[in-house]
Amino acid sequence: MRLQLALDVSEIDEAVAFYSELFDTQPNKRKPGYANFVIENPPLKLVLFENTDNAGGINHLGVEAETSAQVEAAEARLDDSGLDTTGVNDTVCCYAGKTETWVIGPDQERWGWYVKTSDEADFGTDEIAEFKSAVKAGVGNDSGSAYCP
User: Fold this and answer.
1) Residue 142: inside a domain
2) CATH number of 44's domain
3) Structural contact between residues 120 and 95, judged by C-beta atoms closer than 8 angstroms
4) What is the pTM (predicted TM-score) of this model?
5) Could you tell me the maximum CA-CA distance found in the chain, to the nearest angstrom?
6) 38, part of any domain
7) Do residues 86 and 131 make contact, with C-beta atoms less than 8 angstroms apart?
8) pLDDT at 136 over 70
9) pLDDT digits (tens, 9 = 90+) for 92-116
10) Is 141 buried (19+), middle (13-18) or exposed (0-12) by CB count in 10 A?
11) Cβ-Cβ contacts under 8 Å for 36 (sequence gap 6 or more)
């Protein structure tokens, strides 16, 4: 497994140049407004999204698993602990097919556990946005979790 850090940046080409130098590696995947690095040392999945409205901010955090079984185990553990999750879903996001689950942290930070299952030509959807809106509104949350209003 490796930790994922997804950042919003103001200018994708400048950010790619900076992080390529910082981690001495080139992007694993590059699309308009998007770059994805697989960094071996330290083990990190760094993802950049061109987004001038939140430049310098965290887009989301995650854990890249090696298997769907690891994602399912993480989702079961999170659910058993009383945290609301999206459940395990097969989806396309960030130019990749994924099996994933999401949870919202105490300060509304988005955390995903996922395994990449394929490369895709399209960006896909942001299924966590609907889940985040429901959690903020308290819809479907009876767990008393600290991150819900």
Assistant:
1) no
2) 3.10.180.10
3) yes
4) 0.77
5) 47
6) yes
7) yes
8) no
9) 888 889 999 998 888 888 899 999 9
10) middle
11) 27, 28, 29, 30, 45, 46, 47, 48, 94, 95
